[in-house]
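Form P-L/3: holo structure prediction, ligand magnesium ion.
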Amino acid sequence: MIELRRPSEVEAMRPAGRFVASVLSELSKLAAVGVNLLDLDGVAHRMITEAGAESCYIDYHPSFGAHPFGHVLCTSVNDAVLHGLPHDYVLSDGDLLTVDFAARVDGWVADSALSFVVGNARQEDLDLIDTATRALQAGVEAARVGNRLGDISHAIGSTVFDAGYGINLEFGGHGVGRVMHGDPHVPNNGQKGRGLRLRAGLVIAIEPWFLAGTDEIRMDDDGWTIRSADGSRGVHMEHTVAITDDGPLVLTAR
Ligand code: MG
Ligand code: MG
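OUTPUT (holo model):
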């Protein structure tokens, strides 16, 4: 069921957005060569506790997950791109890290993800990040009253395809509210002018992700981490966005 939020409810979602943004900002500063993924998860866990927030991940156990997630962050490195289960791994120079984080504050959820390079970056990784950043921006720009859901999907998809990458449609954006994953599903490719008409009060996570060399994925034995089938690197950028009469409001802006 698609729920629309009153302006006062959109306002009430701001603290969750600000908190999620602050955690990602902090983690992007801390993530450096020599830092363990488990330490990043620990920092996020501490920030959740100090803020009186709630993790959306730690008990999360959807149909596609083998067991409850057990951590508060998704950390996906290099050819891992989604749902990376934090594990005993020390970041090394040139790693492409995606941190995905969702939390509930005052009963409202925000969900955001960020990919960046640790240490010295390879140009091909900077190109991935640039394309994903532009795809996210294009999706946000299309999140306007009177447009349709397909306009968001098309904006994302055309940006990614024009840059020469493929798109896997198994996972995409989603409604955000009291729970992390609600309706509607927001595919990362679609047709302009098609689908749900966008109305003020719709709050969605917009989250382009793709891989450098393929649109095929495989899951690790940990039952969570999703990587490219060909070993090529992946990228993922996500914001929680409220559609308002004044245009798109990026609740998780950093
Ligand atoms: Mg997310
Ligand atoms: Mg999401």
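COMMENT: The chain has a mean pLDDT of 97.
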